Amino acid sequence: MKRKINYWAVIVYYIIAIACRYLTNKTELLHAIDNPYLTSILTGMGPALGAGIVFVTFKIKPILSLKGNYRSLLFPITLYWIFPVVLISTVSYFSKGTIPYLTVFTVLIYGLLEEIGWRGFLYQEFKTLKPIYNILLLSLLWFLWHLNFDFTPVHFSFFAILVLGSWGIGKVADATGSLVAVSAFHSLNNFFPGINAKSGAILGILLLVWVIALVVRKKMKLAASVYKAN
């Protein structure tokens, strides 16, 4: 039997997430920090902080973890974090002479902080709802958390991207149980501010490799379950 949604936990989580987002993005709170990587990471701390507080306060056991249902943390770390760092840094080195590994790691850590809240807490809390309602409600709250209140065509397009992302990242969360994996898929939208032929190819390679890895993993688990049954 599925447990009921803890609405008080949802409310507390969202208040903390929104408050942190406002303070770090709309005020001068972080202006004294000289490190741009740290500043960028802190702008996404709200969901992680909110989730951590409600986990402790309401005694909610987290379902996702860094390792997830992999046997070792090394595999998801290598596939979902080391691989994009190496790929993006290598392409950048041969095309621009730079190695932006710190930038890529910053994007991944930022994605992890967000995903601790969105998929680690809220997506799980809304599991009682029908999947379509889960996705739409989470996407709406995620959209508003970005402090997008103009509702222009661009913002509606962004909302559509978040709906698609909520569906896709939710599938990854269910398949792997790994915050490392979901943070990587989350980061696909943040690796490059603008899309061109080169960045599009990189994103395509990452997505293709990760999807293939998920499909192979699913088939291997299915084969193992069939073997045990026989």
UniProtKB/TrEMBL annotation:
InterPro entries: MmRce1-like (IPR042150), Rce1/LyrA-like_dom (IPR003675). This is Membrane protease YdiL (CAAX protease family). It comes from Sphingobacterium zeae. Keywords: Hydrolase, Membrane, Protease, Transmembrane, Transmembrane helix. GO terms for biological process: proteolysis. The keyword Transmembrane applies. The chain crosses the membrane at residues 7-24, 36-58, 70-93, 99-120, 132-149, 195-216. It comes from the Bacteria. GO terms for molecular function: peptidase activity. Residues 100-192 form the CAAX prenyl protease 2/Lysostaphin resistance protein A-like domain.
